[in-house]
Amino acid sequence: MATTVTPKRPIRVLNISGAPADRRDAMANAAASDEPVDVLVGDWMSELNMPSKSYLLSEGLTPGYEQSFVDSLEPAIENIAKKGIKLAANAGTVGTKALYDIVVEMAKSKNLDLTIAWVEGDVVLEQVQTALKEGTHDFVNFITKQKLKDWPYKPLFAQCYLGGLGIATAFKAGADIVICGRVADASPIIGAAAWWHDWVAEPSKYYDELARSLIAGHLIECSTYCCGGNFTGFKSLDWDTIADMGFPFAEIAHDGDVIITKQKNTGGMVTPETCKEQLLYEIQGTYYYNSDVIAKIDQVEFTQVAKDKVRISGVTGVAPPPFTKVGITAHGGYRAELHYCFVGLDIEEKAKMTEIQMRKSFGEERLKKFTTWEFTINGSVPVNPRNQASCIVDARLVAQSPEEEALSLKNFCRPALDIVMEAYPACTYQRDLRTAEPQPYQEYFVSLIPQSFLKQKVHFSTPGKASIDIKAPEITSSLDAQQPSYPPTNPVDLATFGETVEAPLGYIVHARAGDKGSNCNVGFFVRHEDEWDWLRSFLSTERLIELMGEDYVGQKIDRMEFSKLWAVHFLVHDHLDRGVNANTTYDILGKFLSEYIRCKPAPLPKKFLDRGKI
Which residue spans adopt a coiled-coil conformation according to this UniProt entry (predicted)? Predict the structure, then answer.
């Protein structure tokens, strides 16, 4: 008679950090709470601190890890040990072994019986250099299509994105805390679920389950983003509790069924709308790639099953890709910026006068040494300003150069300020001039590396315990760099929606935007099913280009639809000027695009507006 194995209950995974700047008391509060939690996960890394810390590490100015994780762990670790809570942290940045040593010493100093593990293998500069030398792989920037061998910068560091099976292996081997360098943002959640339900033993049997865990991870990886943080419907939140927004749980069953909820007795909310916005954040289209699995998400659906509880359905999975993402950092040069204030009338003319005078002050010899020299005005003056402060516009000069001396006091700050006595009326510069001093910035080359090149390994603090090699997947799916892109499906004549009113698009449309390298994605969705035909018919690629205005300069744009989310998604290629570290705009993270488009006027059906504004 066959033995029946009773599946384990759903695992409860709580994310307590989505960024280095997230609330540092979240881990301690979660560990002290009486609310059940099996695994704590957190992300302290991004394309902002990875390149910057790799540069600082190369200069001997940092141990490489993210200190904010240490600050969060120290007051929490005793309760973590006492309650038997597991922890997987994406916090090593470019100094994972150094962070591991800190955590081992922390546990030892508190006499805690904890097994600490760290995942090695994300640092791949050696493999990149070997492949280039031997010609075994062409590293092509998947945004610009430039080959790495033609990149005019010298690589300092290369770091790839690992999956979650190393974390699962560490937990299965007895680890209590797993320190990672660069696993993909959702990988700690995959790792937790794969350990709990033992999918790690034969992952090729569980692609659907792994894919659903991947999307659960995507939903909670940014902490409170799926609980009301960064939500375009923020005005509907309970404002008495918005200063204590709850962190999200993913409850993942043995069959991959996922419920998203949040900590009890906290602010914020978990609804299909908050989950839709987070799903649309930083994706690239129909397929969501991870080193462990590829999730197909175009049929994803969210259902409210109870207050602050949302079920995910419609996600399927296939074998992982043969490649994973790799980010290659180089020292790009130096940058500096300086700000003036324009007040009142004639802003455009004041800007023109200032730029003419500054260019003369800098002189051609100085200007030739800059790779970037941009003078922009940001903001506008309202008609009949309510006070003096409301009619101030920021004017910003930003410059970049490979030479630090080109941005020295005498070569940047002084010529930028020497015009003040001959300048526009009420000429005033912002007095904090620290930004006018040269600061290093990094260039970031985004490509793909074969998983077979990786040397992933898990190490343990237990004396004599052998390290474990994590093999690359034996079964893979083909990887098409071009996501499906198509025009509106069966578009409806917009006239059938009746009378229209010219009003901001965001009165009836939610949106979320984000970055991946220099790509920017933006997704839009409506509140009611009968508005879906209008949105998908209205929001063509041509319409987005029209709404982008001067910000559209010929970028390639992909478009696809999420019919069960009533959402249209766009991927705007190479929109962000080389990515977060080298970017000279205000929108370094790609988040502004959605709010910019939402404020643009459009002909909205009156009957939808009559339902009230978002």
Answer: none
Rg of the chain on CA atoms, in Å:
25
Q: Are 221 and 186 in contact (CB under 8 A)?
A: yes
User: Measured between alpha carbons, how far is 523 from 312 in angstroms, rounded to an integer?
Assistant: 18
Specify the pLDDT at position 5.
58
Determine whether 541 is exposed, middle or buried from the number of CB atoms within 10 Å of its CB (0-12, 13-18, 19+): middle
- Whether the model clears a pTM of 0.70, i.e. scores above it, the answer is yes
The mean per-residue pLDDT over the stretch 451-461 comes to 98
Q: Are 115 and 174 in contact (CB under 8 A)?
A: yes
CA angle 362, 364, 366 (to 5 degrees): 55
In the structure, what pLDDT confidence band is assigned to residue 3 with cuts at 50, 70 and 90? very low
Burial letters for 268-295: b for 16+ Cβ neighbours within 10 Å, e otherwise?
bbbbbbbbbbbbbbbbbbbbbbbbbbbb
DSSP state of 10: P
- Are residues 531 and 391 part of one domain? no
**Does the pLDDT of residue 459 top 50, yes or no?**
yes
CB 30 within 8 A of CB 263: yes
DSSP 309: E
Give the pairing of strands 177-180 and 601-605: unpaired
The domain tally of the chain equals: 3
The DSSP-derived string for 148-183 is: GGG-SS-EEEEEE-B-SHHHHHHHHTT-SEEEESSB
Domain range spanning residue 281?
A: 11-121+161-286+302-311+455-470
For strands 500-504 and 601-605, give the pairing. Answer: antiparallel
Query: From the centroid of its chain, how far is CA 452?
Result: 26
Q: What is the DSSP letter of 430?
A: -
Helices 187-196 and 165-172, packing angle to 10 deg: 40
Whether the CB-CB separation of 318 and 477 falls below 8 Å is answered with yes
